[in-house]
Structure formats: C-alpha cells, structure tokens
Here is the input.
Amino acid sequence: MFVPVVIVGAGHAGLSMSRRLTERSIDHVVLERGEVANSWRTERWESLRLLTPNWHARLPGHRDDGDDPDGYMTVREVSNLIAGYARTITAPVHCGTTVTGVTAGGDGYQITTDRGVWRSTAMVIATGACSVALVPPIAAGLPDRVASVTPQTYRRADDLQDGGVLIVGASATGVQLAEEIHSSGRPVTLAVGEHVRMPRTYRGRDIFWWTETAGILDEAYDALDDVVRARHLPSPQLIGSPQRRSIDLNSLQDLGVRIAGRLGRIRDGAAQFSGSLPNTCKLADLKMNRLLATLDQWATLAGIDDDVGPPERFEPTRRPAPTPTDIDLERDGIRTVVWATGYRPDHRWIELSVFDHKGMIRHDGGVVRGAPGMYVLGLNVLRRRGSSFIGGAARDTADLAAHLHQHLDRQVVNV
Here is the structure.
C-alpha cells in the first residue's frame, strides 16, 4: 500500500504531526504497535504525574487545560488526554501494528510491519526517547538474591521484596521513587550522580512558567553552545503534586533516605560509590542559583517584579558526613536495586545508515541526515530546549510539517 507519509508512533508527538499534516491536506497513516498512548498505559508507575503543569501540555488544536490548569496530570489522565486527542483530530491510526523494518524503496521508503508493507515518500519516527530503560553493565555484578528493577517494570512499592532498596540515579525518576518507596516502610539508599536541582515554584509561580515565559524552553538547538551536552542533561529534580511541593536531596534526607555518591561498581556483593558527592551537590546548587539569577534579571528587564514574589534562594544541599563509599548489600539488607539511570530510544528496526557511533539517529533539528524525507520527533532538545515535553510538540511539528511539505512538493516537481 502506498501513502505519501507514514508516521510511526501514536503518542503525543506522532498525533501532533498527524494534526499538522491534516491541516496541510497531506494524506498519511499513523502506525502504533499497541494502543494510542501505549507507553503511558503500559510502561509507567501508578503514582506518576507529569512534571509540567496542565496548561503546558497543549497539543496543536487543543487548548483545554481542564478544571485545574496549574495541576499535574496523572498517568491515566495523560493517556486519556492523548486518546481523546486522537479521536478529536480523527487521526488515521492503525493500532496493533508493529513496524519490523524500514528500508529505502524507490523515491521513498518501504515500511514492513506484522500486518503488511507500506510504501511512502516521507516518514516520521515518533516513537520517543524513552523506549528502553538503561541498565549499566555494572548490574551484572548484582548477587542473585538481589532483584533488579527498572522504572518501566516498577508499578508500586508494595510489589517489591521486603527489605532495603538501592536506587541508582537522582534525576526526576530517582528522587520520586526514593520518596515513594521510603514511604512504604522500606529503607532507601539513593546513589547520586550528576543532577539538576530545581524548585517546583519560584517567586510564587511554577518553574515552568518562568522557563516558558522567559523564553528558555524556546531556545533553538542550533543556538546553544553545546547542543550535545544539552541533549544529555539529566531531567530536573521535580515532582508533580497537588501541593506543588519541591523535592530534592534535602527533602529526601529529612524523610530518612540515605544519600551516597555515584555508584561505581558492584563487587563481591558490595556496592562501591564515588567520593565526589560533595562536589556534585555543590555544582548542582551553583547551576540552580545561576538559573534563578537569570530569571531575576529577566523579571526586572520585563518589568514584572511587582507581579511576582520577591527573589528567593534555597538552602544548600546537605551532604552526609561521612559519605558512605562501600555498602555490603547482604549485611545492609538491600534486596532490590532500582536502575533510575535513564532511557534510550529503540530504532533497531530502521535498516538505513542514519546512526552515529553511539547508535543514535543523526539529525538536524529533527531532519534526519542522509535520508531525504525522514524526520524524527520526541527526542531531547530536538529543535528547542522544551522539545521533550508534551507542550513542545506543537512548535516542533509545525516546523517539521512545513519542511516535509516542501519535500513532497519537490518530489512532485522532479517526477
């Protein structure tokens, strides 16, 4: 079957592109291996809420913030939002269709699925950046009696074995799970590497109000000093809660969570941690304060100092003294390790030379290099700093749909 454009993935990014193509009267299909919003339905823990406020999760042609624009959607609310959006825009979604291969074919692409083969002039990869949970090689050193869990398989604390839990990684996922699992009565140790500390609210407004209004989230990828580093920054230490509260290493230590440095290796049943925790925390505090100073400066230049609260500064991160560097898992009663060490996309089904030496798609702002008419969506800092958030898809898809339209027009001219 031939169609001008095939979109792979029916999450918020793929559906946003579907809407943009419909606006331009471009015929297309959306192929989805499961249901619409599949990853939200099957690969998220039960208590998870969005990091961004409801008002920020706006999709093209959809601006309903609900009854609580400053709240944070639950997993079910997010999946319902995306499913409802698919119905509203009448997206041509083919659910239960797994793409098994993509090759060059004629003047476009051949997309092989478990339900047949499609041919297209252009295609959009919208399967996201969080397809596979990263588990570092050091996990091979875990004793057999210690369970290994990822955020994709974790659902609730009560599913874990009784006993202590070591959580590796202190970005958004790690700190949220540390709080939840500790609240279940299980002792928690959090291994902390590089992290981004950020308050939930600043001067009376949500931190995303500041970064959005001040234009930080809209900074273009090709205007950044080091886009590669920007794309690999950890997610900020934030939690979406009805109380709009902050979460950081201080709040976790107040609860009784034990803090250690970056996990270096596991050897003979012992977890060994880096001694660099004080410097890591100091650097995170320094970067947070630089951001707050930037926001203060912008508020003054924008003339809104009287419309928001006074400038704030927060307590420096407290570091345990001495910092634990070696923990015997058996003696310490640790029965589970949760690897909150990030995710990567899964594009193994693309049989084209479009990958770099690390297996990542080479692209310029979502336009895939070496593959005319191929685009990618949903990756970190794809076109802007805010690309990975639901609200970032609207601007990215507007840009890429225009580029795609031009590509199709060129193909017609060349026929």
